Amino acid sequence: MLHENERVRIPRLMAWGFALAAVALTAAALVLDWIAAEQDVPGSGSVWLYPLLVAAIAAPAVVGGLIAARRPRNPIGWMLVVGALWVAAVLAATPYAWVALDAHPGSLPGGSWAALVASLWPAFLAWPLAVAFVFPDGRLPSPRWRPYALFAACSMALLVLLLVLAEQLEEPFSDVPNPIAFRLPESLGFLRAAAWLAMFASLFVGAAAVQSRYKRSHGIERLQMLWLAYAVLLIPMGVVCFLLWGLVSGENGDAVVGFLLTMEAAVAIAVGVAVTRYRLYEIDRLINRTLVYALVTASLGLLYAIVSLLVGVGVGHGSTWVTAFAVLAVAVAFRPIRSRAQAAVDWRFDRTRYEGLRLVRAFIDDVREGRRQPEEVGAVVAAALRDPSAELLFRLPESHAYADGHSGIVAELPDDGRVVTKVEHRGQEIALLRHEPALLDRPDLLRSVLAAASLAIEIARLRVEVRLQLAEVEESRARVVRAGYEERRRLERDLHDGAQQRLVTLGIVLRRLQRSLPREAKILGPAFDSAVDEVGRAIEDLRTIAAGVRPPRLDEGLAAALADLARSAPVPVDLEATHERLPPQIEAAAYFVVCEAVTNAVKHASPSHVRVQASVANGELRLVVADDGIGGATVAGGTGLVGLTDRIEAQGGTLVIHSPPGAGTRIEAEIPCGS
Q1: Coil, strand, or helix at residue 110?
Q2: What contacts 28, CB < 8 A, 6 or more positions away?
Q3: Buried b (16+ CB within 10 A) or exposed e, 207-226
Q4: Residues ≥6 apart with Cβ < 8 Å to 271
Q5: Could you write out the three-class secondary structure of 447-473?
Q6: Per DSSP, what are the bridge partners of residue 622?
């Protein structure tokens, strides 16, 4: 029995042996072609084909050798190296026959046999067709594809057999007798045309197999199939183009050989990239752009021909005006044609991308017209990507933090299995998109949707940043108000418990001294009375000051404090006040707003009465102060209304003043109760 290392080494050596043999045959073919060109053999010396020849053999030989050496049980690698060797033999047979039969007749043996092998050029299509059926796992897409694979194999085998047994070899050796003596009966001559048709049909069947596997695949296999699909797409496109060109010109010459060599290299390179570096390049974008620019090129060429024909009829053929008009028409039509071609390709081959971009563009139009808010862009992007879990986090440059459009700054990204993609606008990061990992398999969709939505995302980011800054300012103002409120309460307590109590004590002491005076000192009594009265007035002044800082009745609620205010007002005040308790800073702000409004009315409007209402609804305290005075009040000129506005805004509320001249004044304020 073979040792384990030997079982691994033998397939590896065989694979690289096939690959080196293919490369050696290619080198020999180039040397023989150079010899034939020295003798001016027709068809030889096409130097521009040399790089394509080397690529067509080296690409499948190297890729196949790598795959077969690493995964000897996967038939893909063996198909590539054996196919490269077969194609190299067919290509080398052509210059070999030229040298043996034309350049130096008799110098090499087997010239007619080499001409026969050179006629087997359908070998170019054999291994790419086989790979199309079984890539990437070495099996057919499903059992129902077995008849189609058998049809393709039998078509290729039948065509090769008919070429081998043909009476006349293929060009350029149609005058060389076939060295095989056996011939098919003339009655079976129709099989040749049928075999050619079947072979070309099998190319489209192979393309259909790739498409079928692509539709059923996902993840890594889907990306791998995209690479092969792009390369296989070249085969039917090239076949159709060269058939049409052959009908027009009568021959294709080296162009067919160049195309076949390019196709060989493209398929091999696509297989290599798909197996090893399938995430390195964006193949879906490459396919999309290829189709778009193929349509654009065809459309512009047709437009150029039509314009040239129409203008030529008017000014005469051969005029430089014909070319000028045609070029101008092509230049003007390029952008709209490209846009329509892109939309058509997306609609036909990438419906998800087409619908996603259409959704984003419609949203941007709505934002521009003011029908929707930019902050809705996150939901729009999620819908465009068909990922309900997608979430946009806007970057805040000042703090280097991220925020969503609703709850504010996000402290830390949760580890919930979603991946993160950066969103950029004009080279600057503006957001992060958290989404399902499956979207990484659609890089063109992800990039296109984010690029289309980047302007709306930037606008939403700026709005979120401004809103957060305003919220921070409002919170800062609220903290200042709370600090001021606490400071006023402290000052009130200090006045009540400190200076006021000392003055009261001083008054009591003076009265005691007055009563303890001897009979002969009664003359000092009026002086003591005056001193005690002065102390009493000082106490009243302190009480007034303390009440201005914060009325004591506010401890019993806003309604009690407003009732005291109404009783002490110089004009009648009709009061309707809620007895619901509110946060202390809200009650204090409301009290001073009403106090200032009533004072302004008495001082400037000469009203006969004032009406005050204070009610709570929907989480807001609503204040109304109305009078029947002269009206005409404005928030200007240093009036007390400026202070009202500042107090209300400090609590996050709003103030509205209605004061038409001669019709009284009505002040309405709304303060959120939860601030």
Answers
A1: coil
A2: 92, 96
A3: bebbbbbbeebeeebbbbbb
A4: 63, 67, 76, 80, 131, 135, 227, 228, 231
A5: HHHHHHHHHHHHHHHHHHHHHHHHHHH
A6: 615, 670
Give the three-class secondary structure for 668.
strand
- CA 568, 504, 555 angle in degrees (round to 5)? 45
C-beta of residue 377 within 8 angstroms of C-beta of residue 457: yes
Sign of CA dihedral 499, 501, 507, 510: negative
Peptide bond into 42 cis (omega under 30): no
Residue with tokens 């993160």: 420
Q: pLDDT tens digit string along 95-131?
A: 998 888 888 888 888 888 888 888 887 777 888 888 8
Strand partners, 286: none
Assess whether pLDDT exceeds 70 at residue 249: no
Where are the extended beta strands (E) located within 243-292?
none
In angstroms, rounded to a whole number, what is the distance separating the alpha carbons of residues 463 and 457?
10
Helices (H) and strands (E) in the chain, counts: 19, 10
Average pLDDT over residues 617-621: 87
Classify residue 589 as exposed, middle or buried by CB count within 10 Å of its CB (0-12, 13-18, 19+): buried
Q: Quote the CA–CA distance of 273 and 314 in Å, as a whole number.
A: 54
CA 112 distance to own-chain centroid: 62
What is the rounded CA–CA span in Å between residue 434 and residue 333?
Answer: 40
What is the C-alpha separation between 533 and 531, in angstroms, rounded?
5
Per the CB < 8 A criterion, the answer to whether 350 and 229 are in contact is: no
Angle 439-442-444 from CA coordinates, rounded to 5°: 125
pTM of the model: 0.47
- Beta bridge partners, 627, equal 610, 665
Convert 449-458 to b/e letters by CB count within 10 Å (16 or more is b).
Answer: bbebbbbbbb
Q: Kindly list the distances between the CA atom of residue 610 and the CA atoms of 578, 629, 669, 670, in Å, as whole numbers in the listed order.
A: 18, 9, 16, 19
Whose CA is closest to 336, among 365, 295, 382?
Answer: 295
Q: How far apart are CA 219 and CA 223, in angstroms?
A: 7
